[in-house]
Amino acid sequence: MIDKNQLPEITGKRTVAKSALFNIEQIDLTFSNGEKRQYERMLGSGRGAVLIVPMINKNTMVLVREYCAGTHSYQLGFPKGLIDPGEQAENAANRELKEEIFFGADKLSYVAELMMAPAFFNAKMTVFLAEGLYECKLEGDEPEPLEIVEWPIADYKGLLQQNDFTEARSIAALMLVIDKFRGNHE
Amino acid sequence: MIDKNQLPEITGKRTVAKSALFNIEQIDLTFSNGEKRQYERMLGSGRGAVLIVPMINKNTMVLVREYCAGTHSYQLGFPKGLIDPGEQAENAANRELKEEIFFGADKLSYVAELMMAPAFFNAKMTVFLAEGLYECKLEGDEPEPLEIVEWPIADYKGLLQQNDFTEARSIAALMLVIDKFRGNHE
């Protein structure tokens, strides 16, 4: 059994690569059993991000399809974005909804906090369920308009079968919201 | 509506930062509407990864708690790892089980493919459900033994409330397996 208070000690750290967006740090670690390792990790903005499952009515979710450079393909997922400095997560969620699907939300409910690959990143995303949508458009900084896609929540299995709906955080959010609705109806 | 065949054109690319693990590429893009942007993306190994939800019996899952450098904390999640060059995903899944929880699996069922942040990465993970476990230990390259944690699947909501169980891919895998079991019993 690991003593979880016995974190490895970081005995050295240095930036080994840096670009406009990414900062890669190498750290020297000594584990509590004396084992030594060098690991790399990515330093983030620390700003956090939000992802929103918007319900345009009680049966229908709204998703967006947008260009993803990592895969050089269009991918389907829920609206999301970084929290601006000083911004509350709820305000970021409402701003992203207005920029990406041209709706604000009267009601945002907390669903979960998701981390992305904590072995390498410190990237936290707060997931909200958005209800009570009203039309409201903000200009974003997208190079082209996102494709807005409505999907009946009853057909979530059909959504899971789309070969461009594969992002882990969107799938986690979908399944947590499905579970939440199931719980409400049981 | 976006013509999905009309991917932006990559008119230039260059490595802007590189470390032992990471290779960051800057690309020049021209979108179909003429808009130009420079994006950064991370080039991966292209090897793919596996994540396994192991059932030690029909009611109990097995997880591991391990040190994550990105967050400098111990995190709870399902066994996972990279696919070795030339290795089949199923074989990688069985190898990771033997290295991390000291069990092999007679039965591996495909659950899903998950991508991590496709805006920046091209990192694909195949999720398996593992049943029919038998004791079998392989040596891994971990600096310290992983803590092995059994969790009753009926208490998945308790697992979701653990503040060290937050990794998006583990949560997606858990909820997809819950949904699969629900479907089998409906």
CATH superfamily placement of the largest domain in chain A? Nucleoside Triphosphate Pyrophosphohydrolase
Please trace the helix and strand order of chain A, writing H or E for each element: EEEEEEEHEEEHH
What is the straight-line distance between the termini of chain A?
38 Å
Question: What is the CATH first-level class name of the largest domain in chain A?
Answer: Alpha Beta
Structural class of chain A: alpha+beta
How does CATH name the architecture of the largest domain in chain A?
A: Alpha-Beta Complex
Q: Total strand count of chain A, please?
A: 10
Layout of helices and strands:
The structure is a homodimer of 186-residue chains.
Chain A lengths: L8 E10 L4 E8 L5 E8 L5 E9 L2 E9 L4 E5 L2 E3 L6 H12 L2 E13 L8 E12 L11 E6 L3 H5 L7 H18 L1
Parallel strand pairs in A: 4-9
Antiparallel strand pairs in A: 1-2, 2-3, 4-5, 4-7, 5-6, 5-10, 8-9
What can you tell me about this protein's structure?
Two copies of one chain form a homodimer. By secondary structure, the first copy, chain A, is of the alpha+beta class. Chain A has two domains: 9-43; 49-185, Nucleoside Triphosphate Pyrophosphohydrolase (Alpha-Beta Complex). Helix content of chain A is 19%, strand content 45%. Chain A has three helices and ten strands, in the order βββββββαβββαα. Chain A has helices spanning 89-100, 156-160, 168-185; strands at 9-18, 23-30, 36-43, 49-57, 60-68, 73-77, 80-82, 103-115, 124-135, 147-152. In chain A, strands 4, 5, 6, 7, 8, 9 and 10 form a seven-stranded mixed sheet that branches. Chain A has a three-stranded antiparallel sheet with strand order 1-2-3, with no helix packed on it. In chain A, β5 and β6 form a beta hairpin.
